[in-house]
Amino acid sequence: MPPELLYLAPPGTLLAAVMAGIFGLLIGSFLNVVIYRVPKMMAHESENYVAHESGLPLPHTERFNLMMPRSACPHCGHRITALENIPVVSYLALRGKCSQCKTPISARYPIIEALTGLLSAALVWRFGGGVAGGAVLLFAWFLIAMTFIDADTQLLPDDLTLPLIWLGLLFNLNGTFVPLPDAVIGAVAGYLCLWTIFWLFKLATGKEGMGYGDFKLLAALGAWLGWKMLPVIVLMSSVVGAVVGIALIVLAKRGRNIPMPFGPYLAAAGMLTLFYGKPLMDAWLGFLAGG
Q: Considering only CA atoms, which of 47, 81, 85, 88 is closest in space to residue 64?
């Protein structure tokens, strides 16, 4: 699909959007598992590696992945049943508490489920249910998982960023979103853009202003949306990040030296660009021309 037609893709039907929304709720439940477990899996692997290299017993020998063990209440260990794991509905039915120990359950779980469902419906309504529609669903689900992982841990795992880069390049082999050369240049330029800023900032201040995961996430956005959209993505994420950072310092009394994850702002800018890339690019070019 030529890039100028990306944002004029045939819309999906209401039924397809509703079905995508329901399926998105289920995916949102799985994303909650990904968000919680992937950082722990990384920590376990790292700690086991250090112990192995030091000749010490491995601290983590139990099976722990996205499937095992079964989800349980972290306070009383109650195994979550199928009826207690229905997205959003179970949370409301349980009134936000564990069925056994009555410990409050974080509202973030149904929020992520609802967000994933609503966004999935909106994407299928906007892009249809073909290859492009399926692709943007994957794009969104990866970004949701990385947003909350980065917010929690200030990490953007390679297990998520690297597949997102390759998926973007694969879907653009036939120009699903942008021509393949634009996607390849976008991946390279996205990485080098933040890599350059990182080193300039470090040379000037002696501090690291961002992590390598941010480079890879912007590379992934470039692989999906093309190099022409990178200025818009960087500008939006930087402005929103600066506004939120200042608000946290002023209103929440957040310390200036406390690191703030940049991944959520990149992800949000990427989603906005997916929906409104052409108008945003036109506005950006008009601003430059007017300046």
A: 47
